[in-house]
Amino acid sequence: MSYLPKSPWLIHYDASSCNGCDIEVLACLTPLYDVERFGVLNIGNPKHADIFVITGSVNEQNKPVIQNLYNQMAEPKVVVAIGACATSGGIFRECYNVQGGIDKVIPVDVYVPGCAARPESIIDGVVKALGVLEEKHKNMTKVAK
Amino acid sequence: MSGINATIAVILYIVLAPVVGGLISGVDRKISARMQGRYGPPILQPFYDVFKLMAKQNIVVNKHQKFYVLCFLVFIIITGAIFFAGGDLLLAIFALTLGSVFLIIAAYSTYSPYAYIGAEREMLQIMAYEPMVILTVVGMYMVTKSFSVFDIAMFDQPLIYSLPGIFLGFVFILTIKFRKSPFDISMSHHAHQEIVRGVVTEFSGKELAMVEVAHWYENVFLLGIVCLFFASNPVIAIVLAALTYFLEIFIDNNNSRLKWQSALGSAWIVALVLGVGNIAFLALR
Ligand code: SF4
């Protein structure tokens, strides 16, 4: 077992969301939910992060930003798409500039539904992501051997 | 100190300082969380973080950066080794500064604008705390007539009686050295980031782990200097060092970050009033 699931650091990026899901992501850090008790830190630097948490849908302007952030993260890394917008485009789906969910540009590992997603389900999604992270780490060391 | 004792002290320091430093940092995070009404991470969390960073891919922007970060770690360890072997205090302080300079060079070698800003702020921090550090050493010399840590520690009367101003000034700049608010301008340990992550923005994986471990070594060394002020009674020295650290956590949680101008200005005013004042008093006595 590695120490990855004990110390997941996240980077949170707000694609074109209505800010509803972002408030809920930040609510996870407040004393009521306190995700730091699981070692989760909102690190704000892609090079230090293990989990990429995205809210909102992809549009033409933020597409390169999302790809750039994803490419800068060190392996192993997982992506969690939070809210209806990030998973499918949500209510912005029909907009002329919106391409759809996050999986249109980068591979997404965990989808968290809801509009807005509740803090409980966001934490649940991050915990699911930890399993994926561990799996990816195993594959990484296998390849290295 | 005799050769064999000094060797044992150095080996103990190299082995135990990261354990103690990591535990201090874990307790620090727990107490900070409790002060904010949160439950907080486990005490061993800093160790989990470092072990995790070891398992991560290492993204290197410039191949020299690895060497500089390694030098940073090595010189911080040398600083503590000189100190705990009872060596020259002045030499230890210079080794510490050299270590910090390597961290700055490492940040500059990455060509990242974020790391540049972090490096510049780190230099401002060095400018802010260095006068007070030197005055601390000078004050200790004036009282004990020796730069040797062993002689200072063996001095028959606690230094705090003759150096109260210097002690307060040193506690003030400890806030800068521990990277605590309101002076965490180049890099912070909290969820709030300063211009991405300051000096360490471009370090990932093993390098970041090395910076973290160096920080643990450094904290143990700095708390060692705090102990030196009360050296005639080891129990009281350790209790007061723990209280000093608690005070730093308290300050950290009750202040927002200052601008660098205020950080530099206040540190120099403190050095001038408390540091130079105390030394002038000693000289005129
Ligand atoms: S899923 Fe709902 S709450 Fe979340 S960003 Fe989209 S519209 Fe806003």
Helix content of chain A: 25-40%
* CATH class assignment of chain A: Alpha Beta
Global mean pLDDT of chain A? 87
The SSE string of chain B, one letter per element, is HHHHHHHHHH
How many structural domains in the coordinates of chain A?
1
Which oligomerization state do the chains in this entry correspond to? heterodimer
> Count of DSSP E strands of chain B?
0
Number of DSSP helices of chain A? 4
Number of strands of chain A: 7
Q: What share of the residues of chain B does DSSP label as strand, in percent?
A: under 5%
**SS summary, helix count of chain B:** 10
CATH topology name of chain A, in short, is: Rossmann fold
Helical proportion of chain B, percent range: over 70%
Write the layout of secondary structure elements.
The complex is a heterodimer of chains A (145) and B (285).
Chain A: E1 9-14, H1 20-27, E2 41-42, E3 51-55, E4 58-59, H2 63-72, E5 78-82, H3 83-88, E6 98-100, E7 110-112, H4 119-144
Parallel strand pairs in A: 1-2, 1-3, 3-5, 5-7
Antiparallel strand pairs in A: 4-6
Chain B: H1 3-35, H2 45-55, H3 64-84, H4 89-108, H5 113-144, H6 149-153, H7 164-177, H8 205-228, H9 234-254, H10 260-284
Helix pairs in contact in B: 1-3, 1-8, 1-9, 2-8, 3-4, 3-8, 4-5, 5-7, 5-10, 7-10, 8-9
Bound molecules: iron/sulfur cluster.
The site of iron/sulfur cluster has 13 residues of chain A, from helix 1 and helix 3.
